[in-house]
Write a structure and sequence with these properties.
The structure is a single chain. The chain has 413 residues and is an alpha/beta fold. The protein has four domains: 162 residues, Molybdenum Cofactor Biosythetic Enzyme, Chain A; 51 residues, Alpha-Beta Complex (Molybdopterin biosynthesis moea protein, domain 2); 94 residues, Molybdopterin biosynthesis moea protein, domain 3 (Molybdopterin biosynthesis moeA protein, domain 3, Beta Complex); 74 residues, MoeA, C-terminal, domain IV (Beta-clip). Helices cover 18% and strands 29% of the residues. The protein contains seven helices and 27 strands. Strands 15-12-16-20-19-17 form a six-stranded mixed beta sheet, sandwiched between helices. The protein has a five-stranded mixed beta sheet with strand order 7-4-6-5-8, with no helix packed on it. The longest helix is centred in the C-terminal third of the chain and has 19 residues. The two termini are 30 Å apart. Bound molecules: adenosine monophosphate and magnesium ion (MG). The site of magnesium ion has 6 residues, from loops.
Length: 413
């Protein structure tokens, strides 16, 4: 039997790094930059006001007090977006808004609230009264104070999220080079399967792995395509694989890999010689298969064949596929591992690494988290999977763990 770590290595080795692609910045959400990105301009691009108020020369307000206020004539109005280069005459003030370019000659902004001017959408009065001095430089955002033109904005390998999209857009960058998202197709097998929305006959079940695994693929940052399932018929199965192999970077199948008499995936792929079927010392998810599928058209595409039990399928995805997919795309693992105290005694089969469903109670302080095991270990209990927010990772050589012990936990959220 293969260990979990060994099989993780085999699965990860199926993938090469996807080539870089140029994408519109918003479409690159969740992907990793392929190269360093330097700022093509400075931010801010020009000295501008940090407040709604009055642009002044600080020296003009030097002697201002409540008893001896300074009154200056108001020159122009400078709203954000004004593009002409304005001058501030000595002994005057311009009314200026947040983000508007500072007029040349001005070296400070006094917020409107500190003057006698009305706040709000009213015309400027002819004069404005200041009851105190202002330091030169006050309430001014200097050009380049956020980022200087030519300096590194994002290093290669940065995962694009909302703040990165904000920075790139502010720098005027519309397109970015990222590691291409891997294209994953998901194909379920089983003659008992019926598509949700249709009536069931006795002995039939709704197909749930396909939609579940496709969602997991998308959450992992790849693109997911959910194929209509095939019955336990090797010709139907390989026909469907051949249809999609050329346009996929990975095929994930579910079902048909254990020890029964109608194991369509195993039957169809064993003979290829490029897909191996192994037992991995874990629970759930012992029967696993992976390798390369050579389509009739000649393409060689990585294929991972998951067991059909829904819990086995999703746990296998979390343990093997998510880290491999993300690693290939240059993305960090996604799921954090933490230590938590076990909320109840558990038993575990000796010789198998067990992944039990758990619910975390993020106690205060966070260092004192408790994880409660939920549901039986059997791998058809979708309800407990849907309730769980963690997998309790019990090492292979352990057969029981007492409540209160520290355990390793893989966070599912
Ligand atoms: P198998 O791995 O094909 O032997 O299937 C193991 C168990 O998982 C059986 O109870 C199947 O009915 C169930 N199963 C297999 N594929 C799916 C699927 N796509 N959706 C829901 N249950 C499935
Ligand atoms: Mg089956």
């Amino acid at each position: 039997m293969r260990t979990v770590v060994e099989h993780q290595g085999v699965v990860a080795a199926l993938f090469g790094a996807p080539e870089p692609v140029l994408m519109k910045v918003p479409d690159a959400m969740g992907l990793a930059t392929s190269s360093d990105i330097d700022a093509p301009l400075s931010l801010p691009g020009f000295d501008n006001s940090a407040m709604d108020g009055f642009a002044v020369r600080a020296i003009d307000l030097a002697g201002a007090t409540a008893d001896h206020p300074v009154v200056l004539p108001v020159g122009a109005d400078i709203p954000a977006g004004r593009t002409d280069d304005l001058e501030l005459e000595p002994g005057t003030a311009h009314r200026i808004m947040t983000g508007a370019p500072l007029p040349s000659g001005a070296d400070a902004v006094v917020p409107v609230e500190l003057t006698d001017a009305a706040v709000g959408p009213v015309a400027a009065a002819a004069t404005v009264t200041f009851t105190g001095p202002v330091d030169a430089g006050k309430h001014i955002r200097r050009a380049g104070s956020d980022i200087e033109r030519g300096t590194r904005a994002l290093p290669a390998g940065t995962v694009i999220g909302a703040p990165q999209i904000g920075l790139l857009s502010a720098l005027g960058i519309a397109e970015v080079t990222v590691a291409r998202p891997l294209r994953v197709v998901v194909l379920s097998t089983g003659s008992e399967l019926i598509e949700p929305g249709n009536a069931l006959r006795h002995g039939q079940i709704y197909e749930s792995n396909g939609a579940m695994l496709t969602a997991a693929v998308i959450e992992a940052g790849a693109t997911g395509r959910h194929l209509h399932f095939v019955p336990d018929n090797t010709a139907d199965f390989t026909t469907r694989l051949d249809e999609v192999a050329d346009s996929a970077d990975l095929i994930i199948t579910s079902g048909g890999v254990s020890a029964g008499a109608f194991e369509v995936v195993k039957d169809a792929l064993s003979a290829t010689g490029t897909v191996e079927f192994v037992k991995v010392a874990m629970q759930p998810g012992m029967p696993q298969g992976c390798g390369l599928y050579g389509s009739a058209g000649g393409a060689q595409v990585p294929i991972i064949t998951l067991p059909g039990n829904p819990v086995s399928a999703l746990v296998s995805f979390e343990v093997f596929i998510r880290p491999a997919l993300r690693g290939a795309m240059g993305l960090p693992p996604h799921r954090r591992r933490v230590s938590a105290r076990l909320g109840a005694d558990i038993r575990s089969p000796r010789g198998k690494r067990q992944f039990l469903r758990g619910v975390l109670d993020d106690g205060e302080p966070a260092a004192d988290m408790v994880v409660d095991p939920i549901g039986p270990p059997a791998s058809h209990h979708l309800r407990y999977l849907a309730e769980a927010d963690a997998l309790i990772d019990v090492p292979a050589d352990v057969d029981e763990v007492a409540a209160g012990s520290s355990v390793d936990v893989l966070l599912l959220r």
